[in-house]
Design goal:
alpha+beta; Jelly Rolls; Arc Repressor Mutant, subunit A; six-stranded antiparallel sheet; four-stranded antiparallel sheet; AraC-type DNA-binding protein
């Protein structure tokens, strides 16, 4: 028995938790699929056979599934829990190249890939695109032998991206639509931000949104839910987590702080404008 829980669903990719309770030594055939899949095991294990090659999969070995493959699976040791990442073909090509040549489908999960997997699972509830790109890029370095996308002029690229984010263009909502707008691969754009500014694109974009949140809180915005929606956060909880991460305080605490400052300033202005002596009262 299989169960799927969607962790993230974007037009360019999906991330799902797959729980398999099968326990059989025979092979079950799966219908060929049209997507590119990266599957990493979280617990348990199973076997996969494709093009006559059988691979035992567990937490140390995952696999890359390509469109049109005839796959067979076996679960001789019981069930398993996996993370299945489905990529849109154009996103895959932007990361692996226009004509990627996989050296194989098995993927060794070293410490770096394991950490990238865990970071993706933590980030999937928010955006997760940058973590996904990092994970897939690490996998590409293992299994793709052909040339992968590269480029120069990262300073100009980052400047353009910052302009798009500053203008609050719809494409600034995430790494992948922003890369599409700028005509570069998500991997290149992500790496360029880190090299040029020392922070990830996600953190930079969130920093801009946090600054705008402060503006709204200072103006007296009463609804955190409305604020989160207006600024492009997934929900109010996402807004609160991000603001706390960047500023060390919750939006509610900041609203009180900024409101107190505003009240104090207004009181001072009123005091300055009020008459201060009997002569002024008579004038």
């Amino acid at each position: 028995m299989l169960s799927f829980i969607a962790l993230a669903a974007r037009p360019e990719f999906t991330v799902s938790a797959v729980d398999c309770r099968d326990d059989h030594r025979g092979w079950s055939a799966e219908q060929p699929r049209a997507d590119v899949r990266l599957v990493l095991v979280r617990s348990g294990g199973f076997r996969r056979r494709v093009r006559g090659v059988c691979t035992d999969l567990d937490r140390t070995v995952g696999y890359l599934g390509l469109p049109g493959e005839e796959e067979h699976f076996s679960h001789p040791a019981g069930g398993d829990v996996c993370t299945s990442i489905s990529l849109r073909p154009d996103l895959w090509r932007s990361l692996a190249g226009e004509a990627p040549v996989p050296a194989g489908s098995s993927l060794y999960v070293d410490g770096r890939l394991d950490l990238a997997h865990r970071r993706l699972l933590l980030a999937a509830r928010d955006d997760g695109a940058e973590e996904l790109v990092g994970l897939v890029a690490a996998a590409v370095q293992q299994v793709v032998t052909g040339p992968t996308p590269a480029g120069t002029g990262d300073g100009a690229l980052v400047a353009k991206a910052r302009g798009v984010i500053g203008d609050d263009h719809p494409a600034a909502s995430g790494l992948i639509p922003l890369a599409d707008l700028l005509g570069v691969s998500p991997y290149r754009l992500s790496r360029a931000f880190t090299r040029e500014l020392g922070v990830s694109l996600t953190r930079y974009r969130n920093g801009v949104r946090v600054s705008r949140a402060l503006d709204r809180l200072e103006e007296g915005e009463p609804s955190l839910a409305v604020l989160a929606a207006d600024l492009g956060f997934a929900d109010q909880a996402h807004l609160c987590r991000t603001v706390r991460e960047h500023l060390g305080q919750t939006p509610t605490a900041l609203r009180r702080l900024l409101g107190a400052n505003r009240t104090s300033s207004q009181t001072k202005e009123c005091a300055d404008a009020s008459p201060t002596n009997a002569h002024e009262l008579l004038v």
